[in-house]
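Sample entry (411 residues):
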Amino acid sequence: MNSPIELPTPGRIPEGFSRDPEVTVLLPALNEALTIEECVEWCREGFRTAGVQGELLIIDSSTDGTAELALARGARVVKTAKQGLGKAYIDALPFIRGRYVLMGDCDCTYDFRRIGPFVEKFRQGCEFLMGSRYKGSIEPGAMPKLHQYFGTPFTTWILNRIYSSHFSDIHCGMRGITLSALRRMCIVSRSWEYASEMVIKSVLMGLRKDEVPVLFYKDRNGRVSLHRRLGWWSPWQAGWINLKAMFIFGTDFFLTRPGWILLCMGTALQVSLLPGPLTIGPVTLSVFWMLFGLLLSVIGLQCVFLGLLSQLYFDYEGTRLHRLLDRFRYTRTTVLSAAVFLLGLGTEGLFLRTYIHQGYLLFNTERAAMHRAVFGLFLLIAAFMTFTFGLILNAYDKSNRSRVHLGREDA
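Predicted structure, serialized as tokens:
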């Protein structure tokens, strides 16, 4: 099956579902015949209790009759190839009719009879809602202890550190998002990492977010979870690819902040040694420390610029690009870079004159002059890097405008 296909549904919409839904409950399914009928009834009860018009959309890759059982109970079913959990949500996008989308599992581990809090927060203006099992409740035996007390808290802590967020349970499968935000989010992950990608992009896009306590139940007797079906390595693989998503989307975390630290440390070291060698107790900081400061400064500045550029890959609202363009306007950046370059060139010229005057013997040269020469070299490098960064930034802006213009013409 190359493309998703919606199975024909009965002409009459069963009680509890709507042709014009406000909420779509979107559930992927892979051989869930044991629980699918009860799950449909839970959703119907949830809509009725919350007083909301809703529909249940199943994205099915099963071979055990799950689709037929769901159709008979009134759900809409889209058949698609088994290509991963994230791909199931990607395939579902053209078929969603509700303004708000609730995601989860159809194994009755998440209680869709309690969707009222999600609906209330949506109506209050929230665009992305994460369920939290830790703020709700976890039935004994529902989660392996390794997941409950180490895996999920640890990866949640990592994501919060990288993105300055405040989630308590990033792997909770029950979550909600507006259809508009889901379309703008452009999910690309095909496997388990879709969960982290959604959370990360909700932060990068500046969506209005909140958490909703949820109940998490253990598997029904006779059901084997997907992780167990895939083998003992599956949870570790899921954790690894989720970390991969966090690191890729958070590239600037490993560049921009460390870069500023290195740049400040290196520049401070160079400035303190600019008058000449500095003795602190038994230690004398000479030109070799000046060169070390130069190294730190150059690496730091490079990291800062690379980090700022990496932010543009995930600048979904265009705010970061506009902010950077405002700070690095072409004329301002060019003039400033030229001024710094000429200052560095002048400093090197003075050193060259001293070097020639001392008979072309480097170690006969005044030490302060050597220190100034090192700092002049930093000024030359910094000026060139800043100028080229400004060029790349403006080139990206031109290219981005061209893509937007072509997109509008195609539309």
